[in-house]
Write a structure and sequence with these properties.
- There is one protein chain.
- The protein is of the alpha+beta class.
- The protein is built from 3 helices and 4 strands, in the order H-E-H-E-H-E-E.
- The mean pLDDT is 94.
């Protein structure tokens, strides 16, 4: 699903008031972290992920891997925090503007 810039702006606005729900630390993207991200995305659709590993390139690589493996879209990344979105096809909670 391609997300337009207008939709990203809308989702960034919604993301301001949420706190990071998934934390990734020294162990990296383990199966348990991936399962937690999957379950949280399925329930909330929009999540913040705190990534506390290495330098900027390592964080970018880890976030890209998480997005690829979970099917989520990267909406924004500021420092150690990434905002991810994946629509729930069965029970959508967030209605995107067209």
């Amino acid at each position: 699903m391609a997300i337009t810039e207008q939709q990203k702006k809308y989702l960034r606005g919604l993301g301001h008031k949420i706190k990071p729900t998934v934390m990734i630390a020294d162990n990296g993207l383990s199966e348990s972290v991936l399962q937690e991200a999957e379950s949280t995305l399925a329930h909330h659709e929009l999540i913040k992920v705190s990534v506390r590993v290495g330098d900027r390139a390592a964080r970018d690589e880890l976030i890209a891997s998480l997005c690829e493996r979970s099917g989520a879209s990267l909406i924004a990344r500021i420092g150690n925090v990434a905002l991810l979105f994946r629509a729930n096809p069965e029970k959508p909670r967030i209605r995107l503007p067209r």
